[in-house]
Amino acid sequence: MRLTARQTWVLVLLTLVWGLNWPVMKLGVSGTPAQPHTYPPLTFRALSMLGGLPVLAAALVLMKVSLRLPRAQIGPLLQLALTNMMIWHVVIISALPHLSSGRAAILGYTMPIFSAMWGMAVFGDRLSLRQWLGVATAALGVVLLLAHEFGRLSGAPWAATAALVAACAWAYGTHRLRRTTMPVPLLAIGFWMTAATAVLMSALALVLESSRWQPPTGIVWASIVYNAIGVFAFAHVAWFYLARTLPPVASTLSVMLIPVLGTFSGALWLGEALHWQDYAAVLLMVAAIASVVMPPRAASAGVGTG
Questions:
Q1: 75 is a domain residue
Q2: How do residues 127-144 score in pLDDT, each as one tens digit?
Q3: Is 62 left (phi over 0), alpha (psi -120 to 50) or beta?
Q4: CB 165 within 8 A of CB 91
Q5: pTM to 2 decimals?
Q6: Smallest Cα–Cα separation from 40: which of 82, 86, 90, 87?
Q7: Is residue 255 part of a domain?
Q8: How far apart (Å, rounded) are the C-alpha atoms in residues 297 and 283?
Q9: Cα-based angle 100, 115, 98 (whole degrees, multiple of 5)
Q10: How many domains does the chain contain in total?
Q11: CB 244 within 8 A of CB 178
Q12: In 43, 161, 254, 261, which residue has its Cα 20 to 30 A from 111's Cα atom?
């Protein structure tokens, strides 16, 4: 398979926005080592979603995308939202205060490994040798990036486990999204999934965190705005586009640079320590991406032959 020019640009922008968002979220809910603070994580995520929805809606109206959702499609849409967004966002933002931003990103992006497993176990997918090598390479990169964190994770094992559960649910949701037959435009599906998740997140924040509500500081507001515009008005829709137009393993492995970017930006902004495993993992992630997005040698060699 080859990436089209549009897919390539969407992938590059998605990687930048999502990769940098891990330390941005950590700044929003925990602050910096020099200026720590605690902001309720579910509330942070709810405000981000509620802020992003009007921007996304305005963009879709300008693009003349119909937001009409037939009543019969509400059930299927909520099922997609549950595995693609609801579980992921509730769990990962709750675990983030207890993990470094880079390691949270790495745990979350075990998703490609779960995607391959779901594909074989439930959806009858068959992986080529090159795809197997890509999955194995990505798995090794995750192991390397976690090598120096086991001691830290042992202090909050529920957070690490929860992040893996969220990644597993997201991987399953990717398969369901790719196979959906809903007669609704993809961008509209993304909008309504975000809206449904915002309602759930707001309800949970009200029930669980209202006693800790406080006015956001400047850093918190900046993090919320970044998430509202960059993540919920752009990145999620971009991901849904890639998930629908690329094979599941390709679409998931193709974003494996996101945790790498999250790890290094977290080290730069938040002073999170890096080790040789981090640098080795960069090469492994690049190899994993190349294994699924580059055309086979035989196909490339055959171009132009008579």
A1: no
A2: 778 778 878 887 887 777
A3: alpha
A4: yes
A5: 0.84
A6: 90
A7: yes
A8: 21
A9: 15
A10: 1
A11: yes
A12: 43
